[in-house]
Specification:
It is built from ten helices and eight strands. The chain has about 240 residues and is α/β, with parallel strands linked by helices.
Length: about 240
């Protein structure tokens, strides 16, 4: 009898621990209207994409990444100013370093371009981790959309893609390890970051409320996505 009671208590405790573990693994979600109410209030129509800021170790990351953002942003229903043209105009104004854009009053972008909002992007990671038989490519982008009328941050999100470039299982023994190392080295050498940067953009932009030129405009308020707000900010205390 006692044995059965102990068994039942053990099963109950195990079930509770399993439920707690599962809850801890499930990411918290939120809705677009809950997270980004300002964008529904202001209803921006046009977005100016600013040159990306680079915090990665790859010197050429800005050049490659800048070719990937305009198309997916336009697909979300906003008018986007032609990136090559706006970049040249900024250079004509003496702005060659994208980090200088942080200090420009946002109202100036509305005055010069007529933009309702500006998109800031920061390349956090553009990395290749290579250890002979294993290799990972990581592209991580922080995005922030700010109003040129109120200076309010209307939307922010991060898009991160991690790709395994390892050679996989090429069989056992020394020959298998050598084959795996060769495949990994080749994959790492020819890795093209641009397609993965596009994936990172789409990963971030899925949380952006749709613009006027999208069929789901003002119909996506209750769409769920993973909440990236730090726990300390979610805590009302």
């Amino acid at each position: 009898m006692k044995g059965n009671q102990l068994k039942n208590k053990f099963c109950a405790c195990a079930s509770v621990l399993l439920m707690v573990s599962l809850c801890a693994c499930i990411p918290k979600t939120t809705t677009k209207i809950q997270e980004f109410p300002g964008i529904y209030e202001e209803q921006p129509l046009s977005i100016l994409i600013l040159p990306p800021m680079n915090e990665s170790m790859a010197a050429d990351a800005k050049e490659y990444y800048s070719t990937t953002i305009q198309e997916p942003l336009a697909y979300t229903g906003y008018y986007t100013f032609p990136y090559p043209l706006t970049t040249e105009l900024l250079k004509m104004e003496g702005i060659y370093d994208s980090e200088l854009l942080r200090d420009i009053p946002l109202a100036k972008f509305k005055e010069y371009f007529g933009a309702d909002a500006v998109l800031f992007t920061t390349i956090k990671k553009w990395d290749l981790c290579y250890i002979v038989i294993a290799s990972n490519l990581t592209v991580s982008i922080d995005c922030s959309l700010k109003s040129t009328s109120t200076n309010q941050e209307l939307w922010k999100y991060n898009g991160t893609i991690v790709v395994d470039l390892s050679g996989g299982n090429a069989g056992g023994g020394i020959a298998g390890l050598i084959a795996s190392a060769i495949v990994t080295a080749v994959n790492s050498a020819i890795a093209d970051y641009v397609p993965y940067a596009r994936q990172a953009n789409y990963s971030a932009l899925h949380s952006l409320p749709y613009g006027k030129y999208h069929p789901q405009h003002n119909k996506d308020q209750n769409m769920n996505f993973i909440d990236q707000t730090p726990e300390t900010q979610n805590d009302p205390q």
